[in-house]
Amino acid sequence: MTDPARLDRSLRSRLRGNRTVVVDLETPYPANKEAPAPLGAWLNEIKQSGGEVTISSYCNNSRGFGSFLAKIFGGGPAEPYRAARRYDATLYVDAVDQAVTQVAFIPRKAIQ
Q1: DSSP type of residue 17
Q2: CA 49, 106, 88: angle at the middle one, nearest 5?
Q3: Greatest Cα-to-Cα distance within the chain, rounded to the nearest angstrom
Q4: 52-90 pLDDT per residue, tens
Q5: Contact present, 67 and 24 (Cβ < 8 Å)
Q6: How far apart are CA 90 and CA 87, in angstroms?
């Protein structure tokens, strides 16, 4: 992950809308391991706010679209991952090598 701070800024900005945001990972990680620190922070915020993180096969319609996950790390405001609280996430795994290659942040249907 080459520029984690830039990815944090990008995700913070993109998750402000109420639409699905798909992120292609420049460096896939094994599906049976914990997500790397930058992505892990966003996924933990989803879980802690009552959202779900699931695993599925590729999200083929957007594969190769927005390879910006290498920028998801860094500081920011007091609650830097707050934007993730309105989302669920799906981790897409390559069936051949069992590596997470893509993450889709999906707006929750009902947030209370």
Answers
A1: S
A2: 25
A3: 40
A4: 999 886 644 444 433 344 334 344 455 778 889 999 999
A5: yes
A6: 10
